[in-house]
Design a protein that fits this description.
- Helices cover 28% and strands 23% of the residues.
- The chain has 12 helices and 24 strands.
- Strand 21 and strand 22 form a beta hairpin.
- Helix 2 runs parallel beside helix 5 and helix 3 packs parallel to helix 6.
- It is globular.
Length: 527
């Protein structure tokens, strides 16, 4: 029901904004290691890679590339040095993998052939791009891999001009960034493709991250010719999620000092947190469950549609979602196991494939239609790659140059629909339906934070409905006291009724909250 509803729209459209640019970002995180010990004093956790974890990442990457090619989706595959070196056939890396009793050389070669073939086809069909994603992995003088200690500094979401993040010593950046980029470049050379994206735990400072993209030679030596990143991603958007519970809805250019301030740096592609995961990240709760991620997508659609209806200047709208290769195991987590979503298991893997497919299927339905509820014209969403991105027309900037970032939702600076952001914060999409040409979405709120397993919410949930019509209309709804407001109003108030007792739904869309009865209109969801 949900996917067909997302695609439906009338044919006569005059309200336009550019299609929302969508893409999956897949990170190939560091491999767990069988610890041996480090020869170098600056490293810890040195060892040989766990073979079954390498196999899991490699197998899942092959599935992802084949599935995304089959469905016409796009993926930015960002790898660390272990996967880059192993998939390129580096002899030392393969010898280390072969020490794992779960693998043998022939099986390793078979997996490399499969992932190389899938990646080669996806690249040639312009369904995939290759990039770099680094943690703190560096090479020990013994030939093993270990980790350097990250510099202690200000939280990245709190950094600003008067209190910038700390950065590592130049030698450490060379060890981590240089080794990582060159490792992935080995695969890029094998496939004759550029490396068009970069994300990393190092450099830590915002200006350092910008430097890697715009002037990598200032950060590490011997920059490979294949390394030509065009923008920044993920963590910048996550800072906004911590403030208002959704990523920025458009691209913008990075500032050197503050994560959410527009500047003159490279294009920032904001991202949804890891789809499926509810584990803490950047020292804060993080809800990437399907219910939260799909709600944020609907919220973006409402803002995009409102901009089209009100004739706003064209803006670079975007929705990217994020996954780790080890979390692409088939299926869904067991609801009787709370840790299945609230913790991470890099060695054993996690089954978030169903969540990722759920979001991707919603986007597929939108991509198949030129319009959504009276807006669109040239398309609703479009699958893109990093080289397609442009921040032209962006209205996103959240903060002041000489002050800390805003604390929470600042209505004066918030660039979308503040009432929608306030009422849908901490909510999950519960169901969707179509009633007399009106798209009806029901969201359940949990201000105390959603939990996986058990009751889901520690406190009673409240219901919020978004009614999005093709044209202004009157809609039959159940009796009961309601608070309501158009999506661009300042606050909820009493509902407005048509002369026949039906609810008045304005063209821009209506938020409705039942007063004291969260089960109101439950039959619209088939409950």
């Amino acid at each position: 029901m949900l996917f067909s509803l997302l695609a439906c729209a009338p044919a006569d459209i005059t309200a336009t904004q550019p299609p929302i640019q969508v893409m999956l970002t897949a990170h190939g995180d560091p491999l767990p290691r069988l610890l041996v010990g480090c020869a170098d004093g600056g490293l810890s956790g040195c060892g040989t890679p766990v073979g079954r974890s390498w196999y899991r990442r490699t197998r899942n990457a092959t599935w992802l590339l084949e599935r995304w090619l089959e469905t016409g989706r796009t993926v930015d595959l960002q790898l660390g040095p272990e996967l880059g070196l192993s998939w390129s056939g580096d002899a030392d890396t393969l010898a280390a993998l072969a020490q794992d009793p779960d693998l043998d050389a022939a099986f390793i070669d078979e997996q490399i052939d499969a992932v190389q073939a899938a990646l080669s086809v996806a690249l040639s069909e312009e369904r995939a791009a290759l990039g770099v994603h680094l943690h703190t992995v560096a090479e020990d003088s013994s030939g093993l891999l270990g980790a350097v200690e990250r510099p202690v500094g200000v939280h990245p979401c709190d950094a600003w001009a008067g209190d910038p993040l700390s950065d590592a010593e130049p030698a450490v950046l060379e060890d981590v960034v240089g080794f990582g980029v060159r490792g992935v470049s080995a695969l890029a050379d094998t496939l004759d493709t550029p490396l068009t994206s970069y994300t990393g735990h190092l450099p830590a400072s915002l200006s350092g991250k910008i430097a890697v993209v715009t002037d990598p030679a200032s950060v590490f030596a011997d920059v490979p010719d294949a390394f030509v990143p065009v923008g920044l991603s993920s963590a910048y958007g996550e800072c906004f999620i911590q403030q208002v519970d959704h990523p920025p809805f458009e691209l913008w250019r990075a500032d050197h000092d503050q994560a959410l301030l527009a500047g003159e740096g490279p294009v920032v592609l904001p991202g949804e947190r890891v789809v499926g995961s509810m584990a803490e990240h950047l020292e804060a709760p993080s809800d990437g469950s399907w219910g939260a991620a799909s709600r944020r997508l609907i919220q973006l659609l409402i803002s995009w549609r409102h901009a089209a209806l009100t004739g706003q200047p064209l803006r670079p709208w975007a929705y990217t979602f994020h996954v780790h290769l080890y979390q692409l195991e088939p299926g869904l987590p067991d609801p009787s196991t709370p840790s299945a979503r609230h913790e991470i298991f890099p060695e054993e893997g996690q089954p978030y494939r169903g969540d990722v497919e759920g979001i991707a299927s919603m986007l597929d339905a939108l991509a198949s239609s030129p319009t959504w509820q009276g807006a669109g014209g040239s398309g609703v969403v479009q699958w893109v790659l990093p080289e397609d991105l442009s921040a032209t027309g962006s209205q996103f900037s959240y903060g002041e140059p000489d002050a800390p970032p805003p604390d929470g939702l600042d209505r004066e600076q918030y660039p979308y629909l503040p009432l929608v952001a306030e009422r849908l914060a901490s909510s999950h999409l519960d169901c969707a339906a179509a009633v007399d040409g009106v798209a009806v979405y029901r969201f359940l709120r949990c201000d105390s934070g959603w939990q996986w397993g058990g009751p889901g919410c520690a406190e009673p949930v409240g219901a919020v409905f978004a009614l999005i019509p093709a044209t202004a209309t009157c809609l039959s709804v159940p009796d009961g006291p309601l608070s309501a407001a158009a999506v661009d109003d300042a606050a909820l108030s009493g509902a407005s009724w048509c002369s026949d007792g039906r609810l008045s739904v304005p063209i821009q869309g209506l938020l409705v909250e039942p007063v004291g009865d969260p089960s109101w209109w439950s039959e619209v969801c088939g409950l």
